[in-house]
Specification:
594 residues, alpha+beta, Heat Shock Protein 90, Ribosomal Protein S5, domain 2, Ribosomal Protein S8, Chain: A, domain 1, 8-stranded mixed β-sheet, 5-stranded mixed β-sheet, 22 strands, globular
């Protein structure tokens, strides 16, 4: 019988390894930016085209690589930070080249130009599908330029699983922000298809957060800090009144590496308990410094999850630290309220007994009702009785078929149940309608129709609205602008603001803030599946503008919603494929009464 097991060719092994580390263009961006940081670069430039599917290029002014290093960096198991097994538990850098570069080169075409300060000439190398096609001497400034082109060109199945350019760009921006927030001392620029999305100068932590999320964001931050023998923690939390429904402003950094930790996130949420509206999440930027030997960063291929030696202690420190800062900055009620020192009893009088106790005299024989002036007269009784003159209960019932029919016709055909459902009768039974889902369906079809016919009516705002945008939101707005205008919004971008002068007639200006937060929310992008940009916009708007559960509706509003629902093309499900109503037929009702 022939042998079954054989060693994989290197290029196949590299492609398998790439699947663990390189999941999408954002994975490549993360690796290249971190390599530039470990190369001691003070200036890092990121260039993206085609949302990273076409080109990803990172240029830095770091220490560069020697001809030998640049070749070795694309070999499997090549690394600059591990010399022995013990080094796995004391990693402090992100890895100067090596490791992931072999995975990148296995599924893309890579071109590198690099030069050290002490070298007269630079080195350039071209690799395609793990195969070195060319290596030669070239001319380039000190530092390194790595261009990754045609990602997954030789793994078409993986390329087909990539999302739309809008979604992939958002993931790239997320990774860029994580690296930039961790290294405020480094200048970063980010250009997408030739347009500048970010230009972040070298600053401190607070300014870097503000430059990343908008200049006014600095006013929303509360500093937190705690230094213990176990860990050094510093950073900022977002004031409770600026909390958002999305989790896009939640950042933990451990030893200058972004991590995800549901356990530590729970500590922050617990500190905000009682301060946030329902379904809103706290924002935070927390930097933790611990002994590298007390954590394990290799439990996940992308190193975004780590294991702490003493998680419980860290949980308690973070929760206590944040509660203390919220109290200090009057973002939370505290027990130690300020008091007026002038009201304190002087120390020399505290031990003296109380003298000259004031006396209170009471006339026990006083009767206020003996005064004729305030006695209740017979005429005043009649005045009180007259208040109820129009409230007599009728004792007569309809005595003719016509009167009975008129009484029934005037009765409402619908009624609201639990301020969430609308109940109406049918020929065979009852119809129970979810008012929120019904309204979503009505709005969704109206917005889709307005895009097709371009006939949505706008209402002009007396006072135009201004909404500040982050660079990430500005990038998305360019794709959404045309559909917003056809849906009835009159909106223009002015630098980093949206200037809104008109809104759809079915929208209230009080809803604008939440509406645009939903439109630009990364969480909403993940939840909403759509077949086109217009479909996505119609779904987001219908979700944001629809009436909510626990809202009391008048009979007229209930009937109008039922009529609008059954005028729709699809009445069975809402835009998110959930059932709008259920029916209870006569037999079901009778069975329940048996």
């Amino acid at each position: 019988m022939a042998d079954i097991i054989s060693l994989l060719p290197d290029h196949v092994a590299n492609q398998i390894a790439a699947g663990e580390v390189i999941q999408r263009p954002a994975s490549v961006v993360k690796e290249l930016l971190e390599n530039a940081i470990d190369a001691k670069a003070s200036v890092v430039q990121l260039f993206i085209s085609g949302a990273g599917k076409t080109t990803i290029q990172v240029i830095d002014n770091g220490i560069g690589m020697s001809p030998t290093d640049v070749r070795l960096s694309f070999e499997r198991h090549a690394t600059s930070k591990i010399k022995s097994a013990d080094d796995l538990f004391s990693i402090t850098s992100k890895g100067f080249r090596g490791e992931a570069l072999a995975s990148v080169a296995a599924i893309a075409q890579v071109e590198v130009h690099t030069k050290r300060a002490e070298d007269e000439m630079a080195t350039s190398i071209k690799i395609s599908g793990s195969k070195v096609e060319d290596q030669k001497v070239s001319v380039a400034p000190t530092g390194t330029s790595i261009a990754v082109k045609n990602l997954f060109y030789n793994v078409p199945a993986r390329r087909n699983f990539l999302k739309s350019d809008k979604v992939e760009l958002r993931h790239i921006i997320d990774e860029f922000q994580r690296v930039a927030l961790t290294h405020p001392e480094t200048k970063f620029t980010f250009l997408q298809n030739g347009s500048e999305l970010f230009n972040l100068p070298a600053v401190n932590f607070r300014k870097r957060i503000a430059n990343t999320f908008g200049n006014k964001f600095e006013e929303k931050l509360i500093p937190v800090e705690e230094m213990t023998t176990f860990a050094g923690i510093e950073g900022f939390v977002v004031k409770p009144e600026f909390a958002k429904k999305s989790r896009g402003q939640q950042f933990f950094f451990v030893n200058k590496r972004f991590i995800r930790s549901p356990f530590l996130n729970h500590a922050v949420t617990a500190a905000f308990q009682g301060l946030l509206r329902d379904q809103y999440h706290p924002g935070y930027f927390i930097y933790i410094q611990v002994d590298p030997k007390s954590i394990d960063i290799n439990i996940h291929p992308t190193k975004t999850e780590i294991k702490f030696e003493d998680e419980q202690n860290l949980y308690a420190i973070i929760k206590s630290m944040i509660k203390h800062s919220l109290g200090m900055f009057q973002a939370a009620p505290v027990l130690d309220f300020g008091r007026d020192p002038s009201l304190d009893t002087p120390y020399d009088l505290q031990q003296n007994p109380i003298s000259n106790m004031p006396s209170i005299e009471v006339n026990s024989s006083f009767n206020p009702f003996q005064n004729s002036e305030i006695a209740i007269s017979e005429s005043s009784k009649k005045n009180w009785e007259s208040l109820y003159s129009g409230l007599e209960i009728p004792t007569e019932y309809p005595n003719s078929e016509e009167e009975l029919k008129l009484s029934i016709d005037q009765a409402p055909k619908v009624f609201q149940l639990l301020r969430k459902f609308i109940v109406t009768s049918t020929r065979s039974g009852l119809l129970v309608i979810d008012q929120k889902r019904a309204h979503q369906r009505v709005l969704y079809e109206k917005f889709l129709s307005s895009i097709t016919k371009r006939d949505m009516v706008s209402q002009q705002l007396i006072f135009p609205e201004e909404i500040e945008l982050t660079q990430q939101q500005i990038a998305l707005f360019g794709e959404l602008e045309e559909n917003l205008n056809t849906m009835g919004f009159v909106v223009k971008q002015r630098e980093n603001h949206l200037h809104i002068t008109g809104i759809p007639s079915i929208c209230s200006d009080k809803q604008l803030g939440q509406l645009f937060e939903d439109i630009f929310s990364p969480a909403e992008h993940e939840k909403v599946t759509s077949f086109s940009q217009a479909d996505y916009m119609a779904k987001i708007l219908s979700k944001s503008l629809s009436i909510k559960g626990n809202l009391s509706l008048s009979v007229v509003e209930q009937q109008a919603l039922v009529d609008d629902l059954f005028a729709c093309k699809d009445t069975l499900t809402c835009p998110f494929n959930r059932k709008i109503f259920i029916t209870l037929d006569k037999e079901e009702l009778e069975n329940k009464l048996d």
